[in-house]
Specification:
Elements (H helix, E strand, L loop, with lengths): L2 H13 L19 E9 L2 E9 L5 E9 L3 E11 L4 E7 L5 E7 L11 E4 L4 E4 L3 E7 L2 E4 L8 E4 L3 E10 L4 E9 L9 H9 L6 E4 L2 E5 L4 E2 L5 E4 L6 H6 L4 H17 L7 E2 L2 E2 H7 L5 E3 H18 L2 H20 L1 E4 L5 E4 L2 E2 L9 E2 H18 L2 H17 L11 E5 L3 E5 L4 H17 L4 H16 L10
Antiparallel strand pairs: 1-2, 2-3, 3-13, 4-12, 5-6, 5-7, 7-8, 8-13, 9-10, 9-13, 10-17, 11-12, 14-15, 15-17, 16-19, 18-20, 20-23, 21-22, 24-25, 25-26
């Protein structure tokens, strides 16, 4: 298997999480912006960073990041709660695939499993992350050190219990933990759809939610990478399904925290860098570390646009607009003209300010950018977004049947030598086509015939090869 194919396989797993459609609703719940406090305090052997979100309803999100400077005793955090009905709800894999909820009484254990979950009692409700210890490898990449992570202890008293979190203090290592606390139930568990959503979210296995963002398992073609490493992805595969189903304070508040963190990570120019070196991009095009990936960036910007609508938050709106400007600038500098009835552009998938060889244009990247630009146009009514989306659509439709492979599948990408090739994803691009068609129909009242033709060919190929589009997260 080539490095390119290995990279595609790993990226494909993550990209599947992008397929949850955004709900057609605006500000469906009452929302007030939280107060955010940050501080750094000295502890024995290290420094503890804290970021706290105080929500107007009394809920609090706390994130802790302890950077070890020398070996010392663990730093403890304590959370008391009523022992009445105290339980821990967490997800388990029964057969390697099926996930289901398990309930653990806090009165019958002295420690919690080292997994995220929900602590519920008569007077306090907590959504907790799993404590993690890792070594920073540089370039927003971390290597998990599972052997150092300590389970949360449960200390019994006659009328209450205490949760005690121990953050190891080790030279060169970082310990983290986060918690979202409330005085009222955080999730409407009577809703099967809501329960299933939380059941499927991955906070610890292939991904990590950390102090400074969303981390995903490192491809072997990234530098640095190890079998236990994770890199900070510009996208966030947790927040998308949360935004699509904002039922309960946990979803509303955690999604807000994640979007706020994404804004903090946005570059002044408007994009989000992929900091690790991609070996195949380096070898094929001479692209250095810290490059711009249009798919991950556009996916995150789309989530911020949805956050702009749902929370009516100026920073999310401005962040999405800032990225749209960056994308327009990128397209104007890094595109290929495609002749046809209307002049069209194909926009390069990747770029780096240091310069490199011209890169390919994958169909799924191009469609995702078109879809984002149309959504921006529909919300903000900036004609420049619609104009670029249309010229990029012509770039796709001017090639027409050239996108079709001999077996009826679609070609993955167009290359600067005017060839098309490489195997496409099983159904990711089909979902992008379907969204493009939906938006086109909403804008112009009719279907685009070239998009319909590509969808039909892909549908036949999927049927012939037993490809079934899995149900999206609720």
């Amino acid at each position: 298997m080539t490095k390119f194919k290995k990279y595609l396989l790993l990226m494909y797993v993550g990209l599947l999480m992008m397929l949850t459609p955004m709900p057609v609703q605006t500000n469906a719940f009452q929302w007030e912006k939280p107060q955010i406090l940050e501080e750094v305090v000295s502890v024995n052997g290290g420094a503890l960073k804290q970021r706290v979100y105080h929500f107007p309803n009394g809920d609090v999100y706390r994130a802790y990041r302890l950077e070890g400077q020398m070996d010392s005793h663990p730093h403890g955090l304590t959370f008391p709660l009523s022992s009445e009905g105290a339980s821990f709800r967490y997800a388990v894999n029964r057969d390697g695939q099926t996930r289901e909820w398990t309930m653990l009484s806090l009165l019958e254990t002295n420690q919690l499993p080292l997994v995220p979950g929900f602590v519920e009692s008569s007077n306090r409700y907590l959504l907790i992350g799993a404590p993690i210890v890792y070594q920073p490898l540089g370039k927003t990449t971390i290597e998990e050190k599972k052997e150092w992570a300590q389970p949360i202890s449960v200390i019994q008293e006659w009328y209450r219990v205490h949760l005690e979190v121990q953050l190891p203090v080790k030279a060169g290592l970082v310990s983290e933990w986060w918690v979202l606390e409330s005085r009222s139930p955080q999730v409407p568990w009577e809703s099967q759809q809501t329960s299933d959503l939380w059941l499927k979210l991955d906070f610890t296995e292939k991904a990590k939610w950390l102090f400074d963002g969303y981390y995903y398992a490192s491809p072997s073609t990234y530098v640095p990478s190890t079998p236990q490493s994770f890199w900070r992805n510009p996208e966030n595969y947790i927040v998308r399904p949360l935004l699509a189903h904002l039922r309960g304070s946990a979803a509303q508040e955690l999604a807000y925290v994640m979007l706020d963190t994404a804004v903090r990570n946005q570059e002044p120019e408007g994009h989000w860098k992929t900091y690790p070196l991609s070996q195949w991009l380096s070898q094929d095009y001479g692209i250095q570390d810290g490059f711009y990936d249009t798919r991950f960036n556009t996916g995150m910007a789309e989530l911020l646009l949805e956050g702009c609508k749902q929370y009516d938050d100026t920073q999310f709106c401005e962040s999405a607009q800032k990225y749209a400007q960056y994308l327009r600038d990128h397209a104007s500098r890094h595109h290929y003209e495609v002749n046809g009835p209307q002049p069209g552009w194909l926009v390069a998938d990747y770029t780096h300010p240091a310069g490199h060889l011209p890169t390919h244009v994958s169909l799924n990247h191009q469609l995702a950018e078109i879809n984002f630009l149309w959504k921006m146009y529909m919300h903000f009514h900036d004609p420049t977004n619609n104009e670029l989306a249309n010229v990029m659509l012509f770039g796709v439709t001017n090639l027409g049947e050239r996108w079709l492979a001999s077996n009826g599948d679609l070609h993955y990408a167009w290359f600067p030598d005017d060839t098309l090739g490489r195997p496409d994803y099983p159904y990711l691009t089909y979902n992008d086509l379907r969204e493009t068609q939906r938006l086109y129909r909403e804008l112009y009242g009719v279907e685009n015939q070239t998009i319909a033709m590509l969808m039909q060919s892909k549908e036949k190929w999927m049927a012939a090869n037993g490809v079934v589009i899995p149900a999206a997260l609720p």
